[in-house]
Input
Amino acid sequence: MVIKQISVSLENVPGAFSNISEILGREGVNIRAISVADTSDMSTVRFVVDDPEKAMNMLKGNGYQPRETDVIAVETPDHPGGVNAVLKPLKNAGINVHYLYPHLGRINNNAIVILGVDKTEEAQKVLEQNWVHTLGKEVYTI
Output
C-alpha cells in the first residue's frame, strides 16, 4: 500500500538524529522503518512513522524542514531470494526501484520492505496483480 515517508537532511554530527527521535518519542510517534544515506557533511534520513501528519508538524515546529513522499510498504518472503517476489514484477513492468529499506516489523513471518519507485501508483497495481501483499495501516500496529 502507498504510505507516507518523511525525509530530513541532517548534518553529519553526533546526536543529529537522536534529537529527532527524542522529539517524536516525546509526542508518542513511533518510527517503524528507517534508512540513512550519508556523505561526508550531510545525511538524508528517510523514515516511516505511525503518525506522519503529527511527525511532520512536530519536526516543522522544531525548526526542521521535513519532506513527505509516497512510498510502498510490501510484505516479502523471508528466505534467500525472497525479495525478488517484489522486484521481478516491477522489473518486468519497467518500473525503477530508486531505493529499498527494511521495515522494523514482520507480518506472517514475512519481512516488510519500503520501496521508493519512479511510478508509485503503477507499481502498486503491478504488485497487487502479482499477488504481492502490500500493506497499509496494519504496518503500524505490528
